[in-house]
Structures are given as C-alpha cells and as structure tokens.
Design brief:
Length: about 375
C-alpha cells in the first residue's frame, strides 16, 4: 500500500521544536520504513534531513516551498495544498501525525491524537491554540477511517469527548530510544562537575506550564526541605504558557537557593541529567503518554509520578504513583524513596525492565496494522 504522511511538524534541529510530535515522527518513520509491506511519501517542511531519512524507491520525500514552521502557513498548506498533492501523488491513505487532517481528504485516512488536554484543561492553553485544536481535531476524528491514540487513557478520552466509536480507535504506545540508558558513573560525575550541578538532586523534566503542576511539586519539596532533605531540585525545561507563577512560588516558599532552572536541555544531553539525579519527580495533571518518566526509567533512575491519566500505563509498578493534587502525598513518596536506598535500587531495576518493553519497532508494526484496517474499513464517514 502507498501511504502518505503529513510530517510538517517534524523538525530535525536541536531545539525545542524537536520534541513532542516531532519526536514521534522522527522515530516512527524510520521504523515504518524498515517494514517490508508499504511504500511511503513523506511531506516535510524541514529540509535538513538526517541519514536515515534519505529517500529511496519505497521512501519518497516531498518538501513544501512555503515556510510551514509558521502555524498560519502550515494550516493553509494542510487544508489547501496537501489535498491537491494527495490527489496527484497516488497514495491510497494519509496518516496525519498530529491531530489535524485536511477537511477535503481525497482518500482513506488515519490521524494520531496524542492527548486531549486542550479540552480537559482549556484554561492551560492560549485561546487561539485551543480553538484551533478543538475545531480541527474534532473534524479529523470524525472523518478519519481510523484514529491512533498514544494510550488507553487517551483512547477513552477520544471516545468520550469526540464521540468516535471505540472500534475505530487503536492504542499504539510510543517507543524509547536507545540513547536513554544508564551511563558510566565517571561520565556522569564529569558532567555534573562541568555543569556545576549539586551532588544530591531531584529532577523534573518538561515544559514549565500549568498542566505540569509544578506548584504542587514546589510545595512538596518545601515540606521535604523543612524535614531536613539535603537535595536541590532541578526543574529542567523551556518556559511555556503561564510560567510566571512557578517562579513566584519559588520566592513565596523561600526556595530561591534550592531550586535550579537550567532552561531548555538539548535532546543529546538529557540522558546525562537523568543519570545525575537521585530521583525523578513528575506530578503532571494530565499526559497522553508521558515521555519523561519513561526516559528516567530507561536510565535506571527511580520515579515518583502522578497516578492519573496515562502515566500509570507507562510507569506501572516501576515507580511510586501519587495523587498529584496532594502536596503531602507527593512529599511523603519523595522522602520514602530517598530515605530507603534499597527501595530506590528496586525501583531503578524495575524501571529499566519496564522501559525495554516500549520500542519504536513495536509501534511501527502496530501502526502498519492500523493502516491495513483503515484501508479495509467500510466506506462512509461520520461528519
């Protein structure tokens, strides 16, 4: 089967644009390419392609001359130019990698919906972005022959909030790259010295935004400090929507000398940060999947995370799961792991074993099966 993929959100540069949906496409597409059954045409905006994206007889690349990294231009391209390209290109099916597909899609289609946070926590998004995602995701889910969800929790949300029949939604868990692994202690110590990191540290990784629930993390950390915890807290990640209250909370709780904000951390350096941490803490209110806890687990770092949304599917029994709205429960879990080295080692070992079960090869095989199901689905779509 000839499959087209809308990968205009894919960025190969070493910046924040390479995370999220871009990371999904960056890993899924080479894994799909390694399978024997399909031919692919990939529509891209970023021409700075790596070696494993070089075209061949079964893997074609089509670049837009428009600057589609700008959202208004990308929307125009998706809704106007992509349908024309699909009509000429001969692909039987379109896979849209992130929420949106053309309203006038000329063939069969699959759309991936990573989460519905913009519907569940609308106040955590700016109005323009929320409206765009709400309108176009509903349209895409209604018209697509099949929908892919990153987790069973996201599937339930898609069925409940978008009205998509359960049988049309497939769960395909994301994979974990081999770069996330335990590193030699000497390499980690040299990195810690080079970056001036504390010997004892707790780590959070993610965009600084309301959904990540950093206010509760700071309250829990403040309680731990009052109980004598010697660790510093490192909050690594770019500033996102409504980041200011997090910095204000640091001042209010008297934590200025104890909380470190290194800002955006490049993908290639992230494994070193996980390896340098004694504990990874992730109190996010809602995740469609949850890369950061899985990354920490793959590095052998013990994890405390929210017991909500998709995070229990990722963490399982390899970490401590807590109520993210309870600072006291979060603080108790943090103290419990840090006070019991045997528990920390056991969580690290269970995390390593569990992380090995999430692979991009498995994700690719399951995605190809969704393509086959979409191609064979009865004609007719819900509008």
């Amino acid at each position: 089967m000839h499959v087209a993929l809308n990968a205009h959100l894919l960025s190969f540069g070493a910046s924040y644009r390479g995370a999220g949906i871009s990371r999904y496409g960056r890993n899924l597409l080479p894994a799909l390419r390694a399978l024997p059954e399909n031919e692919y045409t990939v529509y891209l905006g970023d021409r700075n392609i790596p070696p494993d994206f070089q075209p061949d007889a079964r893997f074609h690349l089509r670049f837009s001359r428009l600057p589609t990294r700008r959202p208004p231009v990308r929307i125009l391209w998706e809704q106007l130019f992509l349908p024309l390209a699909l009509a000429r290109g001969g692909a039987r099916l379109l896979h849209s990698l992130g929420y949106v597909q053309p309203l006038l899609c000329p063939g069969r289609s699959v759309v991936t919906i990573h989460d519905l946070s913009f519907l569940i926590y609308p106040s955590h998004f700016n109005r323009t972005n929320r409206l765009y995602l709400s309108v176009f995701t509903r349209q895409a889910a209604a018209r697509a022959d099949r929908t892919i969800a990153d987790s069973a929790n996201t599937k339930r949300d898609v069925v409940r909030l978008l009205g998509v029949p359960e049988e049309k939604v497939a769960v395909v868990y994301l994979g974990m790259e081999e770069v996330f692994r335990p590193l030699p202690p000497a390499e980690v110590d040299a990195f810690r010295r080079r970056r001036g990191l504390p010997e004892r540290m707790l780590l959070f990784f993610g965009t600084i935004e309301p959904r990540k629930n950093l206010g509760t993390l700071l309250e829990a950390y403040a309680a731990c400090k009052q109980a004598g915890l010697p660790h510093k807290l490192v909050v690594a990640g770019a500033r996102g929507w409504q980041w200011e209250p997090v910095y204000a909370a640091v001042e209010r709780l008297g934590l200025r000398g104890d909380v470190v904000f290194p800002g955006y951390v490049s993908y290639g350096e992230q494994p070193l940060w996980y390896n340098a941490a004694d504990l990874f803490v992730y109190p996010s209110l809602y995740e469609g999947f949850g890369f950061p806890p899985l990354e920490a687990m793959a590095c052998g770092t013990p994890v405390v995370a929210s017991g909500t949304s998709a995070l229990p599917e990722v963490v399982g029994d390899a970490g401590l799961l807590v109520n993210p709205r309870s600072a006291a429960e979060l603080a108790e879990a943090m103290r419990r792991v840090l006070a019991d080295p045997d528990l920390g080692r056991a969580l690290g070992e269970r995390g390593l074993a569990r992380a090995r079960g999430f692979t991009w090869q498995t994700a690719a095989r399951q995605t190809a099966a969704v393509y086959a199901a979409a191609a064979q689905a009865p004609l007719g779509r819900t509008v």
